[in-house]
Amino acid sequence: MLLGLSVGCSARPSGASRDASVTPNRGLDGDGVAQLFASAPGASFRLGHSDLNHTPGVEIERHTRASLEREGELGYWSIAAHELEYSSGGRGKTIRVHMHASGGEQHFTWRTQQGFLGNPRDLKNQEFTAYLRVHGIFDPSRAAVSLKIRGGAHSTRDGDLASCTMLTFAPASARAVTRFGKELHHPDYDYVPLEPRFPGALEEGRWVGLKLVSYAVPGSPASVVNQLYVDPTPFDAHGGPRNEWRLFSEYLDVAEKSTGRYATLVDWGGYQTTLRTDGLTQLDLAILSVREIAPPQGSHN
User: What is the CA radius of gyration of the chain?
Assistant: First the structure.
């Protein structure tokens, strides 16, 4: 039975994807994961074989300690959820892993941004990758993994610091398996349900590969493409990434297009990139990275 990533193994690429909707492979990163878009000068973060508890550029909220687990040759980090109270009411559990690829500090919000929230190296066009497995789904209506980008700190002291967008991946029991979200002011969310392009959902105890790709459309400065790619069986028989990515959902963010509370185009560079869970008790994390990319040339359909 396939369990996941074998630590220290050499990844074996499986060749071009069989799904025509996937952007052509631009090579492999240090984890053996296909880079769907070409890298561009700018910030990046890749956990690789580093210690999730003690690596600059990444932190687990509330300093929850991740434990290194093994199943045969498989190595991964396991993180327990902590409790929280939702602003909409009720209690739950969450895990939040934050990456600060560009370093430094946050100086601006979505209202005051200078094309970035912290410094000019903040991630704008980006490819955010996570290979994960969830356990203990106890709240099917809220259970989800959220990939949050272009944002900053979430604080009751200054709600405008949040300044982020996201794409979500949830169980089939959720209100929507995938959504685009904006949280420019914490904790006020807009969510737009999206139509999956193929059957799939977050499942208890099953590994999945997720990629959030976000880029400004060349020649159209008033729009940003946000895409969620999914690899439902992310590891091959040798324990390496299978690299059979398929476009699962997509949202085109356009200036002055309202999502409910907000009509602001989110195209700035973000100080913070976050992997978040809700409605479950444990997250296993094998691969984690984010990097600046070059937008594809040509029009977006």
Answer: 18
**Average model confidence (pLDDT) for the chain?**
90
Measured CA to CA, the distance from residue 272 to residue 242 in angstroms comes to 28
CB 284 within 8 A of CB 106: no
Task: Give the three-state DSSP class for 161.
Answer: helix
Give the integer Cα–Cα distance in Å for 60 and 99.
9
How far apart, in whole angstroms, are the C-alpha atoms of residue 112 and residue 6?
44
Contacts of residue 20, defined as CB under 8 A and 6 or more positions apart, other chains included, come to none
Q: How far is CA 37 from CA 27, 91, 202, 210, 260, in A?
A: 9, 39, 24, 15, 31
- Give the predicted TM-score (pTM) of the model: 0.91
Handedness of CA 116, 299, 179, 81 (dihedral sign): negative
What is the C-alpha separation between 54 and 106, in angstroms, rounded?
Answer: 21
Question: Which residues have a Cβ under 8 Å from the Cβ of 202 and sit 6 or more positions away?
Answer: 134, 143, 144, 145, 169, 170, 171, 177, 208
Residue-wise pLDDT tens digits, 177-191: 999 999 999 999 999
